[in-house]
Amino acid sequence: MKQINIGILGLGTVGTGIAKMLLENADLITARLGARLVLKKAADIDLEKDRGIRFDHGVLTADALSVINDPEIDIVLEMIGGETIAKEFIVQAINNGKHIVTANKALLASSGNDLFQLAAKKGVTIAFEPSVGGCMPIIKTIRESLAGNRIGSVSGILNGTCNYILSKITNEGVSFEDALAEAQKEGFAEADPTLDIEGLDTAHKLAIISAIAFGTKINLKDIYVEGISRVTAMDIAFADQCGYRIKLLAITKQNGDAVEARIHPTMIPFTNPLSNVNGSLNAVTLTGDAVGEMMLYGHGAGMMPTASAAVSDIMDIARDMLFGARTRVPMLSFQMENIRQLPIQPIDDICTYYYVRFSAIDQPGVLSKISGILGEHNISIKSVHQYEQKLNGTVPIFMLTHQAREAEIQKALEKISAMDTIMNSPTLIRIEGEL
User: Could you say which of 299, 328, 357 is where a domain stops?
Assistant: First the structure.
């Protein structure tokens, strides 16, 4: 029986999960693949850690280059992370004719265009399902299952930490700070949660999704990114009263010859299936011209869910190898010569609905002046709500608008913020889907 040799770089959480699956599910994998996947080498700087796995003699090594340069290893899994040494190892492995499987979304978002070009030149594959959405087959769904569809849009909850925090505030009414502390205690958030709560982790994933959905080069730098740190329990409670939930959404759409790509807290109606995705779970909705709307749902991170996606990638590459095929399915969904550089639409050009909260001094004429400024900028108010109870000497005013242009509402908020009767900066949350 044919044997395909695997090498792993990095035995952290995901790398260990992959090794565990390859070893414990070896018979199942062989039965489905028709070949044996053999973990020949696994490199890590810590060889003493008990990972709960019994490796064969000679598999563990502290020398990553011994994996990359081993002529018998066919597929190299990069599970180190980061954008420096991981990139160097991937480039060297590609130059050595190795296929690559990686979960490194940050590296692909920043350097993916060059890496995919190099892989195509060398006739090898970079597979990256575990980089986006954990066990959810987002990449495979767009690239293969919907290959004949024009993708209209992709919207999703792609960060379990943010979803856990927002779910905690929604369900228990706790503060953002308390919800974050609980997420850290439960292991859903890092000690420094910036990458997650400010939307940067989600941006890496959206850059990849936009590329495979619309046949454009990966473009991280032009994605609009806004995190959840300014969302309060008050905003979430008001949204709930109006029939909305607040989620950190990644949104991408094709608008003619441009792509919309943005990440921000978003109010979505209860009728949107994403509104009921709670805790650390992830979910994505996609629209295609043939299939309409569909949804993927599952664990977006974690040892075994992410390992599952990586092993699936290994098996896809192995199937190609068994039949003498090279990159049978285009890595970025489109043939390399058909990938274009589509611009990302500036956030100022976006038209959507808005929720705005002001903290105002309770005196006559304040509301009419706010309304007047909004009207000057072609912003029509759908509803206004004012709390009777004062908070720190001010009254919260909540507004929902009809559809407006982002640039206009930002100009209006700048003028309103300058009013003597407005305390603190207004809070703005975009709305997807009007009730």
Answer: 299
